[in-house]
Every structure is written in C-alpha cells, then in structure tokens.
Amino acid sequence: MNLLFVASECAPFVKTGGLADVVGALPKALAPLGVTARVMLPAYPALAEVAAAGEEVWHHADLQDGPARLIAAKAEEIDLLLLDAPHLYDRPGNIYLGSDGQDWPDNAQRFAALSYAAAEVAMGALENWRPDIVHAHDWQAGLVPAYLHQSDAPTPPCVLTIHNIAFQGLFDASLMTSLGLSSALYTSEGMEYFGRIGFLKAGVAFAQKITTVSPTYARELMQPEFGMGLEGLMRARQADLSGILNGIDLQAWNPEDDPALETPYSARRLKAKAANRGEVLRRFGLQPDLQGPLFCVISRLTTQKGLDLLLDALPALVGRGAGLAVLGSGDKALEAGYVAAAHAHPGAVGVIIGYDELLSHLMQGGSDAILIPSRFEPCGLTQLYGLRYGTLPVVARTGGLADTVIDANEAARAAKCATGVQFAPVTTAALEQAIHRTCDLYAQPTEWAAMMRRAMRHPVGWDVSAAAYRDIYADLVTTDAAQG
User: 10, 163 in Cβ contact below 8 A?
Assistant: First the structure.
C-alpha cells in the first residue's frame, strides 16, 4: 500500500512541536505493516542539503506566483518529496512566523501550494508512483481534501489528522479564486468559517476519514468548550472520526543509551538516575541538596498549557521543599513571570528561556516528576517521554493526558497500576493538591520506586497505533475499490 503524508514539518529536519515528531516517526512504524510512505514537506532552508542530493520529479511554472518543483530524496530513513518554491519557503527563522513574531502574511498561499502539489501527486503527477491513500496533517495540509474533492479526475481517499484544533488556518474569503478553489466549496457545510476560509474546516468537511491524537480528545472535539467552533461539524462527522494515541520513537528516547544523559539507567538500575538529577540541579542553579522532588516543565509557555496556574501554585511547591526546572518559551508575560519566580525563589526555581533538545532529554532523565497542567491537550508527548524515563507525569485530566497516565488514587495504588498523578478541574487549587499528593508519594521511597518502574514499562511506542492507522487505510482502499 502506498501512502502520501502531507505536513508542514517533520522531525528531525524541521520541528516546532509534536506534529513533527509524529510525521517523522509514523512512516517508519508503518513500514513493517506493509505500508510504503512518502512524506511531502516544503523545502525550507533547513532541508537545503537534503534537497541538493535529491532528484526533480515534478515542476510547476507558476505555483502561487512563482516556479516550483518537487524533489524526491531520502534522509533519516524517510522517503521525502520536497516542494522547492523559494518565493514561498526560502526564509530565515520560524517556518510560520516572521521576525516580528507575526504570521507570514502569505501563509495562505504557502500552504495552499503545499496542498495543491500534494493533490497533483495524488492524481498521478509522478511518473512511477501514485498513492493509494493521502494522509494530510493539520490545517497546513487541510486543503488537500478540498482540491481532491473538486477534481473530476479519479482521486484516492484522504485521511485528515487533527493535531490541535485550536490552530485552524483562517484567511480572507476573497482568496478563494487565487488559491484555485471552487466557489462551490465555500458553504457552511464546506470550508466557510464565520465569513472566512477555514483550511482545517475544509479538511474536516471533505476528507473521507478524520483522526485525532487521542480517544478522549476525539470526544472532547464534539463539545463547545473544546471544538473551537467546529464542534457541530465534528458531531456530524462522528462516524468517520477516530482517536488514535500518538507514540514516541523508542530509539531516540531510551534512558539506557541516551547520549544526552550524564549516566544511562534502566528500571533495574534506578539509582543511576541520581547522577542525572544532580546535573539538572547544577544546570538550573538549584540547591544540590534538594530534599523534595525535582519537578520539571518542558513546554511552550502558554495559557493553553496551564502554565499561568503553575506560577500561582509555586509557593505551594516551594513550601514542600521541592524544586522546579523550566525549559520553554512562548508568551512574553509568562516568560517574564518565570524569570521573576526564579529570582524570587533562588535555589528552588530555575528557568531557561528557549528550547534545547539535548537538555530536554537530560531533564527527563534527571527530574523526578514532569508537570503538564494543560487546559486542553490533544495527546501530548512530554508525558510519554516522562513515562519512558521514570519521571512521573503530573497532568490535568484532559485529552491524551487522561488516556496515558494512570492516577495514583487509592484503587490504582492497591491494584499496583498507578503511573502518575491526574487532577481536575484545571484550577490552581487542584494543581496545588496534585503537587501535595506528588510530594507525599515521593516521601514514600518504596512506593515511588514501584511507580517509576511501572511507568517505564508502560507501552508508549507506535506499534498499536500504527496498526490502527493501517486498518483505517486498508478499510478506505477496500471501500474505494468496491465503489469504483
């Protein structure tokens, strides 16, 4: 079975969030299941060397006001189709934002071009390869199903995965014609979203199947508080909606041989984790003889992630003799708030503004618990890394966090299956209570070590989820063959 992935980012080449990790890992997990995947990405500057070693397989003289070509290449065990359009993608810095922190003003054209090229490939533009299924990811690829829907040519079925419905790709309706979209698509049942074009809504409306990244988030999307205006359409497409948990790359995230760690360790050698804890304390300027648990945060600093609540809960955390190491960037007010907190609680709170992949591995390896107080969280990956590294997740009971962490309540502790701490509702008071519960558990070394070992045995890879995707693809191919 041939599969075309379409996405705006893919690890390890270009990454701003969990989308890249999924797009980089899932094709590899599908390969043993008989699915041959190619990943289509924009040819950003970070991919220049990969593109230079590739081969042109398609070109377009005027794609959104400039020439474009597709380059086939292979790197990091991933077969790539790179959309080389310098007028759209040859820009420094963030792939979505200009140096002023605002969206690139032509993002509609940039990602419409990606979707258009993908639709062309889906309809046979390449000489020796054609996909049986197209799998589009998030709003940046949301127009792929729309372009296929409006075509009179034979088209393969399309799957759309929603990684975060909060980001929808909304643009002025006057762009319909210049983006090559039929006015017939611009309806309340189609891609019209409160008077604007909705790239993600187009995908939801016209894809044959829709997936999102956890079962709980799939249910949440049909509720007004989570659906972001698309809850009605999500309910209408309920029969075609599946929630499939993300996995992580078990080779890249392995405490037994992670080169970013001070000392590798395993569930059988938990004492070796202590050396990593000491290094995290040193790197973040925390007191070396910290008596309570060392919490960490590795996140975008936004209110979606509940990190305003954690600022308010810091007195409770510090009051229990615990420490906090924060790595992240985002909202400037939150960045300033955490820097101020580090000054207010020297030796107990340490903050590094920015992102460092190797440091994030060390923090997972050296912290005792990872805090994820998100107001909503489609799946989340950092709690999966935490489980893998025996760094117990303390999470809000929402989305994929609810689906992956087993709360250490009395029943779960008696059944010996707890792997972390959940809390609800998502308030400062509930978060403070979760911090207190975590500190109480940490004060019971035997219980804490048992939870660490269970967490490290918890399945967090792609095997089960890749099989679920494969089943969706196979069902679509069978249905498509029967219909046509």
Answer: no
Task: Tally DSSP H helices, then E strands, for the chain.
Answer: 19, 18
**Cα R_g (the chain), whole angstroms:** 23
Side-chain half-sphere of 449: how many Cα atoms within 13 Å?
Answer: 12
Percentages of the chain per state (helix, strand, coil), in multiples of 5: 40, 20, 40
Helix (H) or strand (E) holding 212: strand 209-212
158 bridge partner residues: 134
Exposure string over 438-453, b if 16+ CB within 10 A, otherwise e: bbebbeeeebbeebbe
Dist CA 429 CA 93 (whole Å):
39
| Structure tokens, 335 | 């960045």
Closest CA to 377 of 16, 10, 101, 17: 17
- Alpha-carbon 206 to chain mean position: 23
> Which DSSP category does 340 fall into?
H
Instruction: Specify the pLDDT at position 484.
Output: 65
Whether the CA torsion 160, 161, 166, 171 is positive or negative: it is negative
Say how far residue 175 (Cα) sits from the centre of its chain: 29
Number of Cβ within a 10 Å radius of residue 239: 6
Q: In this structure, what DSSP letter does residue 103 have?
A: B
Neighbouring C-beta atoms of residue 411, cutoff 10 Å: 10
CA dist 71 and 68 (Å) reads 10
The model's pLDDT over 79-107, given as tens digits with 9 standing for 90+, comes to: 999 999 999 999 998 999 998 889 999 99
210-264 confidence digits (pLDDT tens): 999 999 999 999 999 999 999 999 999 999 999 999 999 899 899 999 999 999 9
Q: What is the DSSP string of 141-174?
A: GTHHHHHHHT-SS----EEEEES-TT---EEEGG
Task: List, edge to edge, every strand of the sheet that includes 323-330.
Answer: 349-353, 323-330, 294-301, 369-372, 392-396, 421-423
pTM for this prediction: 0.93
Q: Could you write out the three-class secondary structure of 306-333?
A: CHHHHHHHHHHHHHCCCEEEEEEEECHH
Low-confidence ranges of the chain (pLDDT < 50): none
The residues, any chain, with a CB within 8 Å of residue 188's CB and separated by 6 or more, are none
- Distances in Å between the Cα of 158 and the Cα atoms of 149, 174, 193, 409, 483 are 10, 26, 21, 42, 15
Q: What are the pLDDT digits (tens) for 276-318?
A: 999 999 999 999 999 999 999 999 999 999 999 999 999 999 9
Contact 28, 77 (CB under 8 A): yes
